[in-house]
Amino acid sequence: MDNSATVFNQVLILFLIMFVGFIAKKADIINNTVSKKLSELLLKITNPLLVLSSFQVDFSRDILNNIIIVFLFAVIVNTVSILLGQLLFVKHEAERKKIMKFSAVYSNCGFMGFPVLESLFGKTGILYGSIFVAVFNIFLWTNGVAIFSSKGKLDKASLKKIALNPGIITVLIGIILFAFSVRLPGPVAKAVDL
Fold first, then answer.
1. Looking at residues 162-188, what average pLDDT do you find?
2. Tens of pLDDT along 55-113?
3. Spatial separation of the C-alpha atoms in residues 49 and 53, rounded to whole Å
4. Would you state the pLDDT for residue 1?
5. Torsions phi, psi of 5, nearest 5?
6. Are 143 and 106 in contact (CB under 8 A)?
7. Cα gap 130→113, rounded to integer Å
8. pTM of the full predicted structure?
9. Are 117 and 126 in contact (CB under 8 A)?
10. With 0-12 CB in 10 A as exposed, 13-18 as middle and 19+ as buried, what is 78?
11. Rounded to whole angstroms, what are the CA distances from 188 to 154, 180, 192, 193?
12. What is the C-alpha to C-alpha distance for residues 103 and 87, in angstroms, rounded to an integer?
């Protein structure tokens, strides 16, 4: 199967899952509380474990070089996006300008991106994707928050969110495990892979 068919199939699967969620919400099987808890489960447990399992590969100079390239690419892409957001929405009224800039720069790249990356490139795709998303999250919790803050600056709460972000913490742990070729014990690795 070629890449476009693989991506199409993965996106179709994701839309079918979303459709089931939509029906479950309409049938009141999933209420707002359940929806919030499922999102927390995804953000704080499922995605971090997926990222951690993607770093369970033997150390290789090629992978390390690619991690550095993805990191630099993510910094460049996010910086250029911020600059374009500044230029494109100059003529809008202040509050609308904030919303437009934020919406143009910050997407939902993890939830949809990880399944597509895994279908195309396996766990290595998730490894590289998690590096991109970690950089994205740092920009989100710095520049993204600054866009909406009254003073245009960061507060301590935003810095705390960066430091305690499960995705960023997991990437840092994953990089350490990768760099020292540390493998999780068998049962733990199996549980993380699920």
1. 90
2. 999 999 999 999 999 999 999 999 999 999 888 888 888 888 888 999 988 987 776 78
3. 6
4. 61
5. -70, -40
6. no
7. 10
8. 0.82
9. yes
10. buried
11. 38, 18, 6, 9
12. 14
